[in-house]
Amino acid sequence: MARAQAESVRAELCLTGVGVAPGIAIGTVFRIDNPTATTNERALLPEDIRGELDRLHNAIMLAHSEIDQGMRGTEGLPANAAEEINRMLEAHKIMLEGSRLTRGIEVRIKKQLINAEAALHQEVEALSHSFAVMEDTYLAARGADVRAVGALILNFLLQQPYRTLAQAPKDAVIIASELTPNDTAGLNPKRIRGLVTTAGGAEGHTAIMARALGLPAVMSAQQALPLSRDGDVIILDGREGLVILHPTAATLKHYKELRARIEARKQELQKLKTLPSKTKDGTTIKLHANIELPDEVAGALDANAAGIGLMRTEFLFMGRNSLPSAEEQEQAIRKAVKAMNGKPVTIRTLDIGGEKIAPALSRHYAKSPNPALGLRGIRLSLAEPYLLRDQFIAALKASKEGELRIMLPMLTLATEIKQAKELLAATAKELGHKGKLPALGIMIEVPAAALQATQLAKLADFFALGTNDLTQYTLATDRADEKVAALYDPLHPAVLQLIKLTAAAGKKANIPVSVCGEMAGDARRTELLLDLGIRELSMTPSSILTIKQKLRELKLKK
Ligand code: PEP
Ligand code: MG
After folding, report:
1. Residue nearest to atom 10 of ligand 1 (CA)
2. Does residue 340 contact residue 300 with C-beta atoms inside 8 Å?
3. What is the model's pLDDT at position 36?
4. Are 60 and 31 in contact (CB under 8 A)?
5. Residue 14 annotated to the active site
6. 467: Cβ below 6 Å to ligand 1?
7. Rounded distance, CA 42 to CA 51, Å?
8. Which atom of ligand 1 sits closest to the CA of residue 290?
């Protein structure tokens, strides 16, 4: 009987989750199932409070140094992954430094007269719950950060040993309930094949990190921990969100072939790197890269991108309580411009507000009844001109390293670009900037801007169509709201008409027009965008060669 049960456990099992990082991984299971710490509540006497607070502060201090160690541990990771993890760890450090979380635990110890473990447990539950119920998927995912920091403190309170990724054997596929940035800091991408978690989603830190490391990953595969054992053979399909435990020989063969085909396709694409980015009938289509972190230029260079068509600067403002100085911004921009070695780099000024969050600026938009229509993008930068001035200082100084262009997000009115132009000229004068000013262009991502493209083309040096927001605002459909996801359609005729109008206005005024929304990196849309008059596309670096392959097969319609 026992034997029959053991046999049945080993039958092939296919679990579904959410695919968050593409690719096929085949390996053996390594489970991280650290027992949840006992958080039994213990009553304190008033005279015990001091000692309990000391225990808590000591655990917090140790958690702090653990994170510092984690940050040092990222040195062996690819630069973009290391930067991504460090950013998350930095945010976790902030949570340990007198945040709502630590204050909440202290208050519970003092007021409820309970031990630190129980106070921590209650505060983490309350805080992560208040995140979890948020409609915004990005914010909802931040509950995982609170739990990760809570688990770290608890670990030091209980002084219990922890299983870590550093102990994983070669070719391991990790299965965990959630992975903290501290866990992933010690991950060796050469030994680990893929990641599965039973919780979390596409915007959680494990997903972001897996994509940065190029590791296939499936989240929310709820049964993966209870149904697996260390050493089980496992297959992950990171695109379809499948986890297959103890596969049959036939399944294994199928996925090995699929993995080989994907690998062969990747190799095939590599051959396109140095071939011209031209349609079959000889029209050049410029392919640029979108990046969020300066280190991502490595991917852009690797794909032989014509330049950086969109460098989002929000990353400098996220996950921290203070504003970055002009010098800090300059260094980040300088790094990207220098690395691109003369190829143009388009810096987009701050686009905080709406779904993009920066704690140091939240007072400006947090109370907005409708943040997507509130003080965001260029509106916030003009309402608080010191923000724009600092970004202009950073950009002007960094422009000495190569070709730099500046782009304004969420532009609705001609006066906005006029004001920005004046401020750029004044800042350049103040700095004693010699030579030409950087080209100043605008995002076309609001229907009003597309409809006024002819007028705006007289003021802007270039246009970049932000089709993500253009779709949202044209169709009055929130881009992050799952309930209306079916209505969010960049192929809606109204959106296409606005793209066409903008391309035509740009052509007439002889200024470049690119598309830098997600559509640009979707090969199914390449032909359509060329038909609409687009000749420049900017996308995530990993899509560039696929799009090049597609456009090299196309002939332009007369
Ligand atoms: C867009 O809106 O299409 C765009 C590229 O900007 P973001 O996605 O950063 O809003
Ligand atoms: Mg946008």
Report:
1. 469
2. yes
3. 59
4. no
5. no
6. yes
7. 14
8. 5
Structure confidence at residue 403 (pLDDT): 97
pLDDT at 147: 85
Query: Is the separation of the CB atoms in 309 and 280 below 8 Å?
Result: no
Q: What is the pLDDT of residues 273-310, one digit of tens each?
A: 999 999 999 999 999 999 988 888 988 999 999 999 99
In ligand 1, which atom is closest to the CA atom of 518? 3
75, 111, 210 from 78: Cα distances, Å: 8, 46, 12
* Number of Cβ atoms within 10 Å of the Cβ of 456: 26
pLDDT at 211: 80
Low-confidence ranges of the chain (pLDDT < 50): 1-8
Which residue, judged by its Cα, is nearest atom 4 of ligand 1? Answer: 466
Choose the residue to mutate in 318, 469, 471, 474 for probing ligand 1, maximizing ligand atoms within 8 Å of C-beta: 469
- Output the pLDDT for position 509: 98
Query: Ligand 1 in contact with 449 (CB < 6 A)?
Result: no
Task: Report the pLDDT value the prediction gives residue 1, as an integer from 0 to 100.
Answer: 42
Which atom of ligand 1 is least distant from the CA of 354?
10
- Supply the pTM of this predicted model: 0.71
Cα of 305 from ligand 2 centre, angstroms: 21
The Cα–Cα gap between 79 and 132 comes to: 31
Question: Checking phi first, is residue 435 left (phi over 0); if not, alpha (psi -120 to 50) or beta?
Answer: left
In short, whether 517's Cβ falls inside 6 Å of ligand 1 is: yes
Contact indicator for 305, 338 with CB cutoff of 8 Å: no
- The response to whether residue 516 sits with its C-beta less than 6 Å from ligand 1 reads yes
- For residue 52, what pLDDT is reported? 94
- Which own/partner contact pairs does 352-355 have at CB distance under 8 Å and 24+ positions apart? 352/314, 352/317, 352/376, 352/377, 352/380, 353/377, 353/379, 353/380, 353/410, 355/136, 355/138, 355/479, 355/480
536 has which bridge partners?
286, 514
Give CA–CA dist 100/387, Å, rounded.
27
The one catalytic residue in 92, 121, 205, 433 is 205
> Quick one: tokens of 433?
């900037």
Which residues make beta-bridge pairs with 443? 464
DSSP 3-state of 257: helix
- For residue 516, the ligand 1 atom closest to its alpha carbon is 5
At residue 129, the pLDDT reads: 83
**How many CB atoms sit inside 10 A of residue 392's CB?**
30
